[in-house]
Write a sequence for this structure.
């Protein structure tokens, strides 16, 4: 098993890169999706959240009202800590279980963990990455893509970028940088080279 940590700023092209790697056979694990899974109806984490924050935090169908919870933790750091204390261990456990399941299903799997907050995952010793890949596009390009392809206003897009870790903080972690400021084809060519590199490294690792 060979584990790639894939990160990048908002709208940098992480999903685009992850999708291409999956098309070659990589097993994708998406941190944002795991964070949603651990609070689905019926989970211990959702029960603990209701216990702390009350029934008002649920929608009529019993699922978590994310905007309502977001509004609470946005203004109250103590609530945010409480929430993190509930969700973070659950996400960590699920992440490790998914990586272990991928390795058990195929000992030669190349696993791509798509995680916006990679620095935190590394600092927390979540899993050991074989390779860290950072997808990079300049802020103006990302803002333009958010406005044109996702319908955000210029102000919203700019705000989302400025709320994140800086490019230099992310790039400091990178073993490989995928430059996604150009055409899609130029990016996919870099991803294909990355796939070959990972396959070679995986076969050496297990030789
Ligand atoms: P998020 O941070 O929101 O999860 P992301 O990093 O996964 O985003 P993508 O969804 O892959 O980024 O890309 C952002 C948007 O830009 C998408 O609409 C995607 O189709 C588009 N896009 C990605 N790469 C390119 C490219 N090289 N040229 C043009 N459009 C692109």
């Amino acid at each position: 098993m060979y584990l790639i940590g894939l990160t990048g700023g908002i709208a940098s092209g992480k999903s685009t890169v992850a999708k291409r790697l999956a098309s070659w056979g990589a097993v994708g694990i998406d941190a944002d999706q795991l964070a949603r899974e651990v609070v689905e109806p019926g989970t211990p984490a959702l029960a603990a959240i209701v216990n702390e924050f009350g029934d008002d935090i649920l929608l009529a169908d019993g699922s978590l009202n994310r905007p309502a919870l977001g509004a609470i933790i946005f203004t109250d750091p103590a609530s945010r800590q409480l929430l993190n204390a509930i969700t973070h261990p659950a996400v960590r456990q699920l992440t490790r279980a998914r990586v272990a399941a991928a390795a058990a299903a195929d000992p030669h799997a190349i696993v791509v963990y798509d995680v916006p907050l990679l620095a935190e995952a590394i600092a927390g010793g979540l899993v050991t990455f074989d390779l860290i890949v950072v997808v990079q596009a300049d802020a103006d390009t990302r803002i333009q893509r958010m406005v044109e392809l996702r319908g955000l206003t210029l102000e919203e897009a700019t705000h989302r970028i400025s709320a994140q870790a800086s490019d230099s903080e992310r790039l400091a972690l990178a073993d490989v940088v995928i430059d996604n400021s150009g055409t899609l084809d130029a990016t996919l060519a870099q991803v294909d080279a990355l796939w070959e590199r990972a396959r070679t490294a995986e076969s050496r690792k297990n030789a």
